[in-house]
Amino acid sequence: METWWRQTALGDWHADAGACPPGHGLGADGKAGRCPQSYGLLGSRRSSPKGADPEGLPGALRPGGDNGRVPEPLLTLTAVPFVPEIRLWLADETTGLWDATGGGYRTDQPPPFWAFAWAGGVGLARFVLDHPTAVRGLRVLDLGAGSGIVAIAAARAGAAAVVAADTDPDAEPAIHRNAVANDVPVAVRVGDPLLDDAVDTDVILIGDMFYSPPIVNRLMRYLRRAQAANPSIRILASDPNRGYLTPDRFEELAAYQVPVRPALEETSSMTATVWQLRPRPH
Ligand SMILES: C[S@@+](CC[C@H](N)C(=O)[O-])C[C@H]1O[C@@H](n2cnc3c(N)ncnc32)[C@H](O)[C@@H]1O
Predict the structure, then answer these.
(1) Is residue 15 part of a domain?
(2) Distance (Å, whole) CA 4 – CA 192
């Protein structure tokens, strides 16, 4: 059986039969709803069909199993398509996200974002590698780091120091493992940086974090605090048109057609646009 999942405003993931399209409500046991695997995990306004979760978040997962994580044997050291300079331990190409969990996905756990290179991160990593002066010699914070792909690109491009931040504790070993695979130093911070005062850094990089209104609202407030604390800070974000980045607050720097996993995104490529946040309005 497949279950719809969605994220609450507080960032928790939970089964949500209400997010299913008509005809796919609660199961007979009143617990798991059955839904088609058709909307992708993060969704996008561009492609979400009518009736999809307005927050663009549902995905179909296979419940059950023991530890709720992608077992390491299912991870393969892979040259990232479009960013082959970087190799990451990623969930196997032949499996979709939920197959890759080996049936071990648990209700109280977020999806293993760190087991995939998301379109936004791929685009931003490409940009940083092709424009190393954006980070060279500077202190960089990668927000919502996942696998650490953007942090690793920044370190490779010559950043003076790189911190990768993510709320998911399992991202920490994943980022360490990936940094080692690329022979670059990346410090990892687990927690919710958006709750804190803006960190003292020169550059903030954000790959594919504009995927839900609650996260985006908090993220934008954090970024404005960061600009208030350091008016010369550079903030770059890459988003594959998931629908929640407000373009008039940003300047477009580049756009890439990046290959993506159909099992995750319902398409084989997406346009990842790299944006720079404009200075704070006075
Ligand atoms: C779609 S993934 C992108 C991962 C990576 N940047 C990439 O592009 O491959 C979004 C990431 O944001 C993280 N995240 C969500 N809310 C967060 C928050 N408040 N602070 C830090 N990370 C967060 C998730 O755990 C997840 O790893």
Answers:
(1) no
(2) 25
